[in-house]
Amino acid sequence: MPANAVEAALSTADFKSLEEKILRTIELLKSAREARAVAERDVLRLREQLNEREEEVDTMRHELVALRREREDVRSRVEKMLEQIEVLAGEE
Length: 92
Known about the structure:
1 helix, mainly alpha, rod-shaped
């Protein structure tokens, strides 16, 4: 086989190898872009969920404060009634 034929065969093999590498790289790039798009959608969804949870937590904190105030009001009223009952019981 002449030297030119060997070089041509190697050149063709090298070209095919390079072509395959480029095609694999393109597929990897496509996969990476798809994965990135999925990850970005997930990030948006999770941020929305986080915002919703933060709003729920804020609402629950306000409710908790209101319930604690109400509990203290009820406790105070019950203590006053008990004092009145003791005063009435002491009068007898």
